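Objective 1b: paired records.
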Amino acid sequence: MNKIFNPIYRQDYFEGYFVGVNPNSQIDINITNEAFSTGFNAGRMDYESWNGGLSNGIPKRVITKEILEDFLLAGLLGLNIDTNDYTPFQLNVLSKWYQSGTEKYEPNHSLYLFSVLEEKGISVKNETFYL
């Protein structure tokens, strides 16, 4: 655990993590080290927990942490969402994040946000939220 406080270890870890969450990445085995390998394994575990195993193929739309946060926010604001091109496995993951947001949904917060946005000249229609 103390290794993560070492800046070189941390940089290699995060490089490995980002390679791990990218299903199309290529790894040069000669340049990997413990930090990179640990980060890669963590990244690949996250990727597969959000998108399913690589053995099932790479989905048309890949879920990232940012997309999960967008679905949580959409649930918080009570917005509809676009779920086209996601696999059934991914839809299950996304629905949990969206549901988590709807459990915290407060209509007054959404109305306040929409009124602030409209004051700034941003037109908001409560239709489908495309990510």
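Objective 1b, second protein:
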Amino acid sequence: MNSFTPVRAARSSRHGWVDIAKGICIIAVVGLYARNDLEALFGQAGWLDPWSAFARPFRMPDFFLLSGLFLSAVIQRPWRSYLDTKVAHYVYFLVLWVAILLAYDTAVLGHEPAAGSAIATVKLYIWKLIYPDHMLWFIQTLPAFFIVTRLLHRVPRWLLWLVAAAAMASHVRTGFAPLDNFNAYYVFFLSGHFGAPLIHHLAEKARQRPPLTWGLIVLWAVLNQAAVSAGLTHVGGLDLLAGFVGISAIIALSSLIADVSWLRWLSYAGSNSIVVYLGFYIPLTQFTRLVHAQLPELPMHLVATLSVLCGAAVPLLLHRLIKDSALRFLFVRPRWAKLVTTASPAAAQSA
């Protein structure tokens, strides 16, 4: 299963918590970028400031763990099929959305200087493919995880995991962002892949014992906030521990609320996380600039809430509106961009 998959049939209730967990994480990602934009425009971000700090230990680690959760089902596929769903899928969106966001940043926000010539524009675009802006670094990193894991699948799991954990905990920075991102998060991806049975068992046990689970979640929230406030989640090794504890809490929480009817929107956002992930930045930044220009006196907590809602809801609505139009290529990879043009229903579901 890809971390990001276009609209599809709902999962069985047994694994319904996965989409809830992804929904929590994608809302946390939108909140982070809303916080950054509001801070730049208004000098404050309301409740998004403490929330973004609270979510940092688990926000991206959980996304990467969920991305590896169902890898065992497909890792032995023929290389062409594997590369199609695990590499070409993300490369397509990276190539497309780097161009879209570069044009937006240059022409609308003025964040990037005009290139001045076609050659300079191409050079800048290639640079952005290597060092993606905004949220696109995640889409760049995932294919590397899938390729490396497939190539090293015969390496003892315990050895590969220990090396990945040491790379994360050491906080070694090379200055080459793709490699640094790989080192920072590969251990979580491997944990999702190697630990899938344990993770599903944790989710099931959490569902079976709600009072105990809620008590542990509250305890985690208190301890996580204390660790964040003390700066402990930036310390090598402790950030790794905080990541796994936070992931466990989100899995448990997601399992408890997976069947809550009024939270179906969160599951929907999670099951369409690529839509939100790719599409939230433009409506979010347009909304915050509109408020800054026209309604600067609105309470910041309200602005923060509306910013997140706008960032998450607009791309989902846009996706529904264009899914049968020529613009669907924005969120759904077209046939010409696929290495494998046909797949069985079972293969499509696990992709």
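The first helix runs from residue 16 to 42. The radius of gyration is 20 Å.
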